[in-house]
């Protein structure tokens, strides 16, 4: 699965991708590599400016292995 700029549009717009790489684009994970470099996939993530509309980050561990999100309270949902 490609997470770089070559990622499919459906992947780049998916909730899983957005939650996984939220705030990751500004993080330097390895010395000598650019910000947003995914060490497992050995490529720079394609979308670095992810904004969450209905969720907000509640907790992230130091090494980013566990990330917890909660629904924003101030979002007016239109049904």
Structure, described:
The chain is α+β, with helices and mostly antiparallel strands. The chain has two helices and four strands. It starts with 8 loop residues before the first helix and ends in an 8-residue tail after the last strand. The model has no long low-confidence stretch (mean pLDDT 90).
Per-chain topology:
Elements: H1 9-12, H2 15-21, E1 37-38, E2 43-44, E3 55-60, E4 67-71
Antiparallel strand pairs: 1-2, 3-4
Which spans have pLDDT < 50 for at least 5 consecutive residues? Answer: none
Strand content: 15-25%
Counted beta strands: 4
Largest sheet: 2 strands, antiparallel
| Radius of gyration over C-alpha positions, nearest whole angstrom | 14 Å
Sheet with the most strands: spatial strand order: 1-2
Q: What's the helix-strand series?
A: HHEEEE
Terminal CA distance reads 34 Å
Helical/strand content category: alpha+beta
Helical content class: 10-25%
Can you tell me the overall shape? globular
What value does the average pLDDT take?
90
Tally the helices. 2
């Amino acid at each position: 699965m490609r997470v770089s700029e070559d990622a499919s549009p459906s992947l780049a717009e998916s909730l899983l991708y957005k939650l996984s790489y939220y705030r990751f684009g500004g993080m330097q994970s390895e010395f000598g590599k650019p910000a947003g470099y995914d060490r497992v996939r050995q490529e720079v993530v394609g979308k670095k400016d992810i904004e969450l509309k209905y969720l907000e980050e509640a907790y992230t561990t130091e090494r980013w292995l566990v990330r917890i999100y909660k629904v924003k309270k101030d979002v007016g949902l239109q049904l």
